[in-house]
Queue: 4 jobs
Job 1
Amino acid sequence: SAEFGAGVDINNGGLGYTYLLYTNSSANNQIVYCQTNVSISCTVTHSVVSTYVKNATPLSNPMYEDLASTKNDLTHFLLATTLAPGDTISINLLSDNVNGKALWLQSFIYKNDY
């Protein structure tokens, strides 16, 4: 989990904000599931997209929240993804408004070596 105080910029010139959630430090491949909860604020109604990223590659499950309120909570699930040793999972948060901020996030990582 992470606390961002006054918040981190999740517009970032259209690139969003990427936060590292987990690195497979095992010597084995792992099947990983994630649940990430994020508190977001903005001065106006805005749209938010969250995307899980494996290493540097976005996974094919972006989640869109159009017309999000000025204070909202977002929950995004990631289903079974295989990570090789050293692979990482991050989450990218993108607001379409320059005032979009992430205040905190908390992730639950479920993993199984095989």
Note: The beta strands are 2-9, 17-23, 30-41, 46-54, 57-58, 63-68, 71-83, 88-95, 101-113.
Job 2
Amino acid sequence: MDNKSTLVSPILIVLFFVVVFLCVYQIPFFGDAVSSVSTPAISVFENSGFINQHSSDPGHPTLIPFLLAQVWKIFGQSLWTAHLIQLLFAFGVFIFLRNRLEQKHIYYDLIILISPLLFSQLFTVSLQLPLFFFFLWALNSVEKNKNITLLIALSLLSLVHLQGILYAGALGLYYLFLNRSELKNIGFWLRAVLIFSVPLILFISWAFIHHKYTGWYI
């Protein structure tokens, strides 16, 4: 049987995410992410810039709160915009996970959709799905040797959460392992240093700007 014929229809997949969104778009549930998503988003929205200036600042980079604040400036402060951003990241995670499956089958689609990581995160607004999305994007870029998208994905990953730097480090080791045949090539090392140093420089720059406004780095 053709594997593609056993997949859930793309229309049903989109419909699933739309139905979930309609169920959760007014739920004011941020959980542990109050201090890392909603509060910094309000701070960025009110003060502009890229730094959370609220006293509850946990010291995480603020890419997602900044994104949410910019959406608020267009559509107004609302819960549905936060849930919509979460939904888009969830859809991206689903696509990446689905594409990684060697065997395509409807059951695997359903398992991904109802997995605790994906499904539960659709009911809250946190940094876990964005963090996972950019990690999967970077992982996909490493395995397909797409250096430009790898650089972009790692840069965004480093600005989502402090864990992003740890994940980038792990991806760096994986990158070296996959390209172990080129370890004696100076050109390879120059390319690798460029790709992985840019996200680190961005993170360090964020830390210095954070120190300027708060008096501490991370």
Note: The chain has a mean pLDDT of 88.
Job 3
Amino acid sequence: MSEQLGTPHEDPRLRVGPIWVDPRSAIYATIIMITALTVFRGGEGEMTWDTFRQVTAVLVAPLFALAMAHAFSEALDLQIRFHRRLNRHDRRHVFIVNMQYLYPCIGPVGFALVATLFGWDADFTTWVILIALFISLFGWGFYAGRRARLPVGRQLIFGCGYALLGLLVLVVELFLTH
């Protein structure tokens, strides 16, 4: 347990199988995916392989850019702080920590693949992914409330607040782009 400003705190990460997920990274990634899907014009009609490729690019590319930006800035920070080049252990650490930004797109890309295989409507597919992202934000808010040891009612309020944050992002993006 470490101390920050004299107050002990716990590791906020959540273990999902062999993967440790930092809620901050997951929330950044989720909001970026909401933004990207909101401005994406996926076309009408059924999901095709071309639409799948476009949806995958819209979901993965911004998260990859985010992961790389954080990786480069963290590498720079480590080099400056330690006054040396990064060694293998440092590079591995930077890689693992920053791959977290890509984890949240696995489910949406998987769903888009299923939608493509079954020829589902592209608009429907995009909205299902968006709704799943809002549910994800609700889950992270609920998780935050739970980790804060709040009563269940307050945990639900936290969850709703995080989901509303995602909805606010969607509304602002729709207002700015449509």
Note: The radius of gyration is 18 Å.
Job 4
Amino acid sequence: MPRYRLNYGDVREFEAQGVGEVVPILQERHCVGGGDDEHSFMRRAAMEMCEWNGKNYYFHSRSAFGESMIRNGLLEVID
């Protein structure tokens, strides 16, 4: 199972079957909007990340969101 490193706010490592599993990891630790439905949460998080580093984030699916985070340096596969 791949191991990922999340570099958003603080650094956190986790194991997951796919990149899209970053969404519940983010959602459980997020201060604002953590109780939103998943799509609303991803939309809010994508806007925050875009404001934070000015890059594009796709949120039409969990995997698209995770791949955007990898492409923009907020998430990496470490193992």
Note: Residues 3 and 13 are 7 Å apart (CA to CA).
